[in-house]
Design goal:
587 residues, alpha/beta, Rossmann fold, Transcription Regulator spoIIAA, six-stranded parallel β-sheet, 23 strands, disordered N terminus
Amino acid sequence: MHSLQCALQVQRSLRWGPMASVSWLSLRMCTAHSSLSSTTCPNPERQEDGARKDFSSRLATGPTLQHFLRSASAPQEKLSSEMEDPPPYLMKDELLGSQRKVYLETYGCQMNVNDTEIAWSILQKSGYLRTSNLQEADVILLVTCSIREKAEQTIWNRLHQLKVLKTRRLRSRVPLRIGILGCMAERLKEEILNREKMVDVLAGPDAYRDLPRLLAVAESGQQAANVLLSLDETYADVMPVQTSPSATSAFVSIMRGCDNMCTYCIVPFTRGRERSRPVASILEEVRKLSEQGLKEVTLLGQNVNSFRDNSEIQFNNAASTNLSRGFTTNYKTKQGGLRFAHLLDQVSRVDPEMRIRFTSPHPKDFPDEVLQLIHERENICKQIHLPAQSGSSRVLEAMRRGYSREAYVELVHHIRESIPGVSLSSDFIAGFCGETEEDHVQTVSLLREVQYNMGFLFAYSMRQKTRAYHRLKDDVPEEVKLRRLEELITVFREEATKANQTSVGCTQLVLVEGLSKRSATDLCGRNDGNLKVIFPDAEMEDVNNPGHRVRAQPGDYVLVQITSASSQTLKGHVLCRTTLKDSSAYC
């Protein structure tokens, strides 16, 4: 205990780099930099006066209030070419990767895919190399998820596998370093470091810029962690590096965090409060993706349609956006800023041949201007994810979702009236705290009433720190949760099959992704509604070159006549290669 106190005292007195005020570093030595070779601590009573004098002298030469005021008023974004000064206990060359090879594994949602690309962009600029071969890696980083217990258990199991790899590492090679990134690092920081001694680095979702320093500290044999959440980090100046060179689509993060505080959700505690990227930086990233030839962009955020860019002062007095009718928020209405409708409009204008999607929205944030824009703009996909979570108003109130079943159903009708032919998907939780059989029956009936095209259904998993953990009782037995989940899945598949079968006989525009995973003679792509479409790899006419026969390649738009449908997939035969603009005459 005394050693830890000494270490913390030294850390607090050091002049840190850019992550100074937010870095939590777990060191097992009691002094830093000049006395790393020492493993013993001086007697606290003898050194108390000296420590106070040392602290006072460091405080006197440290930053003043004016320093922090200047930092707060300075622009947040920095040129990517700027090099930060290293912390005093590291030399500048110690922050460089020296061509060490990094292996990245991604678990969980699309935000984690984007986080992986951000982390790799930062490490690549520091001199690290990327490898897809686990055996040759010098650094293994797992980008993790904490949304459910099963997701975390997957990581614990993976760590046990990696422990074997680490212990068998030849002494002639560079020591293998293992890091946990993302939500699980944020939620279980102490447990990970204490339970799995082989974990060298922890980095929360807002600490990826600090990875070079954390890995440099780990090279000295110490565990290093930075898991503090930020009120303003959006990585707006970090250009993500696409992990798949042959990809036809990309994720673009437009905001981070969530302010909704639904009782079941861990996200506000692992990713922090909402903050949005400046519109200009988002548009720049989308333009670069267009120049690289990508044909689809998905705008990402935990609550993507509550986007609010307040970086431009002239828009800070703008009126607040209206909520969906019958919906409320768990927080005070926010005023000013450039809102989601403005961003969606600007992004869709970058490249008329690039599809635009967005996820994951909250049903409360669908004002008419957003729905009208989706209807009018050809390259904004007519597909909306509308998480319901439950079909029972009583359960929705316990979840603090801010709407009733009736308000949700009214919104569904309004969306379908505003965007004819729209494809709807949703999230549902089976067995939330206090859910009765009647509540479950109401959720089943909502699935039948709305008839979603796609769905994501899960059994409830209580998470520590959430409001439900502190105020509610997880009183639905596990076997009941699983039985209800199976019933929801069965009903969803029945209704989704009916909904998707309405496409049979229709011609749909499909963005080709590549070969089908189940057949080397078939191609796979996605339609406007984000459903997978399978069709034979055959020669076809090219609309832009009459009389010219071609085979579809990844990134091509093709017209496919649908011949069959299931709950998850459409099948058909290809008609021709076309463009997004020209396809409107056929679909």
